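Structure tokens
________________
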Amino acid sequence: MFQSLTIDEKHCWIFKSYSNRDDNLVCAAVVMSSAIVIKTLMTHYYPEDDILEIHLNEKPVAREISYGWNVNISYAVDGSICEIVILEARETGLYPISTERRAA
């Protein structure tokens, strides 16, 4: 069963978590409104260092920006995100990815 995390009325993540794996390749085709969104990404978790890497594409990295002390985002020349690295991912609650649904 797949899980989803709604960001807003037009954006969401759809994912499947495999508890016995530290890496996951995700390819999703989602129909939202009048658009079809297809995205592939690779995640890898390093439990010994508590680091989560999310690879979004293979474009060369042009610049990197740190957001806080534990989140680093790498950007390509065209401004697209190449990779997100999260330090202490489990300790800060960002790994494993989970969703929580609340009644309205």
Q: What stands out?
A: The mean pLDDT is 77. The chain has no helices and eight strands. The chain has one domain: 3-87. The two ends are 23 Å apart (CA to CA).
